[in-house]
Amino acid sequence: MSLELLALVALLPILVALVLMVGMRWPATKAMPVAWLTCAAGAVLAWQLPASYVAALTLQGFITAIGILIIVFGAIIILYTLQYSGGMETIQYGMQNITADRRIQAIIIGYMFAAFIEGAAGFGTPAALAAPLLLTLGFPPLAAAVICLVFNSFPVTFGAVGTPVVLGLKFLNPLVDSAVATVPGLNFASMGGFNMVVGQWATIMHLPMIFILPIFMLGFITRFFGPERSWKPGFGAWKFCIFAAVSFTIPYLAFAWLVGPEFPSLIGGLVGLGVIVAGAKAGFCMPEKSWDFGPVDKWDPEWTGSIKGSDSCEFKCHMSQFRAWLPYMLIGGILVVTRIPELGLKGFLASQAITFSNILGFESVNGAIKYLYLPGTIPFMLVAVLTIFLHGMRGPDVKKAWGESIAKMKNPAIALFFAVGLVSIFRGSGIADVALNPNNYPSMPLAMAKTVAEITGNAWPMFAAFVGGLGSFITGSNTVSDLLFAEFQWGVAAQLDLPRQLIVAAQAVGGGMGNMVCIHNIVAVCAVVGLSGMEGTILKKTVWPLLVYGLVVGLVTTLMSFVFLPHLF
């Protein structure tokens, strides 16, 4: 079967999911099982994989989905615990004292706080944590979800203490060593290593959108969720957006260029958060007039779900702001302590796992649930338990918080099991085993990527980031996207005589921007803001920022490849 036909077969499950969720407005609970069935049929009929192997890959995906669901449950239990303890209303009260302007709150929580959480934990945690916080501040659930998904893009390349770069590019090491040996005078070690070089150029590719995205998104929110239905009110906060972008960018660039890929997002988010909160309190770069979404009874029914935002702007203070924010402080601190290898806890927690080896007898199909390393367990559930004592919660309130959280898990569980099962088939379809893959076909994602590369030719720098985005859309992870496509990106760059570190950097950047349309993240954030079943509606809105992001990154990559930096390796 030709590569082009294979690519078309691989594309079918994605098209099915998009048509059902976006076109026919099916919930992910119905659309993803159909998409999985389409993928499984393609694997058996076109790739000629044994049905038992496809079943094993599906079970592997189910195991991975359990880990994701633990994260989702952890985010939900934090939300409900703070709601019933009075902590959330206290935070609302304090945030109103900083500013009642929803645009500024979106930047503080969705842009900066989420960037810090991404740098510390990654794996979809920021949207699952920040969106409920915006919701309880009075944002429509749909707006909260869209804001947090879109802003969870530029920090993702360096998310989870640099994991997407450090781990995601590991298969490139022998290729880099081999290539360096053939180029006199080239020494990546003197530059901090290839990973550091990739991270440096990735920051330059992200840089325009770090400034453009907050302005664009505030205009987007006021256009589609504001009472005026106009871009103008959002653009009116442009000064604060620039202030926030500068506050994030300075430490972001400094750590990427001087230290390495582990800390740019984490430090950028942490430093930036402190700076812009202080600036907002002082009225620095603040809009002249405050802006809100308008009365709740005037909201479009599409904006809300089963978890309602507050109808009142009058909040009570049930405790000190320090006690109210203490659970989030603990979450941030525990994430940092457990994600930095040098501190010793990361290795121990990551080694505690329930493993599943040789699933259905296939040696290459294994799974594991790192139950202590998942942020849903430590810190989310741990902090939720500690909050019972920190906030002096009563027994009935604790019971309500946990009971309602468990009840919210049904729909995301169904959607995620089949979505991640599909991803597992995608990843395992290119196995180098003639008994399982008799035609030695490339994996489904690789077949699509190679076909696109043949079509684009020397225009590849314009499209390289979109391949990274495709990887994140399919797999739900920038790290896995890089593992899937980094070698392919390197090969295309070598074949077309393009700077390899730039094309690989575009892959890493694309993996970050793809998080805003990733099915896993959308299902997870829908669960925590009560929008299960509206995944297609969210995808229709987040795809536009994705296209803007990809075009800007493509232009920057093209200029760097052919105009400014043609001498690069």
Distance between termini?
A: 35 Å
Question: pLDDT under 50 segments (min length 5)?
Answer: none
Overall mean confidence score, pLDDT: 87
Main sheet makeup: 2 strands, antiparallel
- Mind telling me the C-alpha Rg? 23 Å
Number of strands: 2
What can you tell me about this protein's structure?
Helices cover 69% and strands 1% of the residues. By secondary structure, it is mainly alpha-helical. Helix 1 packs antiparallel against helix 2, helix 1 packs across helix 24 and helix 3 runs parallel beside helix 16.
List keywords for this structure.
569 residues; mainly alpha; two-stranded antiparallel sheet; 2 strands
Summarize the structure.
This protein has helices spanning 3-23, 28-45, 51-85, 87-98, 102-120, 125-137, 141-151, 159-166, 173-180, 194-225, 232-235, 238-258, 264-281, 321-339, 345-351, 376-390, 395-407, 410-428, 444-456, 460-475, 478-495, 500-513, 519-528, 535-564, and strands at residues 354-356, 367-369.
Please give the structural blueprint:
Elements: H1 3-23, H2 28-45, H3 51-85, H4 87-98, H5 102-120, H6 125-137, H7 141-151, H8 159-166, H9 173-180, H10 194-225, H11 232-235, H12 238-258, H13 264-281, H14 321-339, H15 345-351, E1 354-356, E2 367-369, H16 376-390, H17 395-407, H18 410-428, H19 444-456, H20 460-475, H21 478-495, H22 500-513, H23 519-528, H24 535-564
Helix pairs in contact: 1-2, 1-19, 1-24, 2-18, 3-6, 3-16, 3-17, 3-18, 3-23, 4-14, 5-6, 5-7, 5-8, 5-12, 5-13, 6-7, 6-23, 7-10, 7-24, 10-12, 10-22, 10-24, 12-13, 14-16, 18-23, 19-20, 19-21, 20-21, 20-22, 20-24, 21-22, 22-24
